[in-house]
Write a structure and sequence with these properties.
The protein is mainly α. Helices cover 58% and strands 0% of the residues.
């Protein structure tokens, strides 16, 4: 018996074997950091510990797929050594209260099963709280990526607290498992779209009009591209779109000439003439604008003929009235706009 133990301890173990231990492996290793197992965080702890055990190729010691070898087997001592190592890793990842509960367990699988029996149950109050949280989460000041990441964290916790049912008979032919997964993914898509800010209403309608609906990841990329376009064009993502804010700013302006809102005298087409690209009113108003200019020109010539009988004091008085009229942005009068002769012309 002693010879078998000596032989088993001296034999070379392949690095792919679950019995292989590196020189860095020791009983006090902690694979979960500050996330020590306590009442309320079993789902997170289990996910981190499962990942660590798979990485070390030691998960078979807790799920029962590698049972203890029979008495007299060359692998029995090696199994016991690895089992003790895995057991110590589990204990090192718990808080002090839970360590006292499992300290008498002899195998890593016994500890794993005991923790599962204690904590791995559906938590209805927590599931309810998470569902209420998911309906109240909105993007607000978050970026699209940050908002999506926050939702993913809540969805993952919901899955751990209330996992989706799956087929266990291995004889299912109707793919009900895939249908349930697709249904839950569709619910996640609705959650994501409902919480987006209002400036994404256009892309949201576009996504919902696609048949069949795109996947959650595809929808996220579509919205993220829209967000990048907003940033490139300088549009602000603050409740209303840039175009809406611009229209609101201009709606408070009023032209002093035509008394219409949305522009000032400097941009009034009725005063300065309609441009060629203004197709809606170019034809109907072009002649009107030309007639308006002809009337002013005729009035100017008419007034010029009568100014010869005016004294210098009368001309200066008229010029002063014109300046005051322009300062008040009053509507120009046809019989005064023609008085635009400069003073040197009146001296000669």
């Amino acid at each position: 018996m002693a010879g078998d133990q000596s032989q088993s301890s001296n034999q070379t173990i392949d690095i792919t074997s679950p019995y292989f231990l590196t020189s860095a492996d020791h009983p006090g290793q902690n694979f979960v950091g500050d996330n020590l197992l306590k009442d309320g965080n079993y789902s997170d702890w289990k996910a981190e510990m499962t990942n660590a055990l798979f990485t070390k190729n030691k998960f078979c010691f807790v799920d029962g797929t590698l049972p203890i070898p029979d008495e007299g087997s060359n692998d029995r001592v090696i199994w016991q050594r690895c089992n003790a190592m895995v057991r110590s890793w589990l204990v090192s990842s718990m808080n002090k209260e839970l360590k006292n509960i499992v300290k008498y367990a002899t195998t890593a699988r016994a500890i794993w099963d005991d923790l599962k029996e204690r904590f791995d149950k559906e938590n209805a109050p927590r599931a309810y709280e998470l569902r209420r949280t998911i309906t109240s989460v909105h993007q607000e000041i978050m970026t699209v990526s940050a908002y999506y990441t926050k939702l993913r964290g809540i969805w993952d916790e919901i899955q751990s607290v209330s996992p989706s049912p799956s087929c266990t008979c291995n004889r299912c032919t109707c793919n009900v498992g895939k249908s349930l997964t697709d249904m839950r993914d569709k619910e996640k898509l609705y959650d994501f779209l409902m919480g987006l800010n209002e400036e994404y209403s256009g892309i949201r309608s576009q996504i919902l009009s696609i048949s069949p609906l795109p996947s959650l990841v595809a929808a996220f990329h579509m919205v993220n591209v829209e967000s990048s376009a907003f940033q490139v064009s300088g549009k602000k993502q603050q409740g209303k779109s840039w175009a809406t804010n611009r229209r609101d700013d201009r709606s408070n302006e009023e032209c002093a000439y035509c008394k219409k809102p949305g522009h000032t005298m400097e941009g009034c087409f009725e005063l300065i003439g309609y441009p060629d690209w203004w197709t809606k009113k170019a034809k109907g108003s072009k002649n009107q604008t030309n007639r308006f200019k002809d009337q002013h020109k005729t009035a100017a010539v008419h007034d010029h003929k009568h100014t010869a009988n005016l004294s210098r004091e009368d001309i200066e008085h008229l010029l002063q009235l014109i300046k005051e009229s322009k300062a008040k942005d009053t509507k120009p009068i046809a019989n005064t706009t023609g008085l635009t002769l400069e003073e040197p012309d009146w001296d000669g």
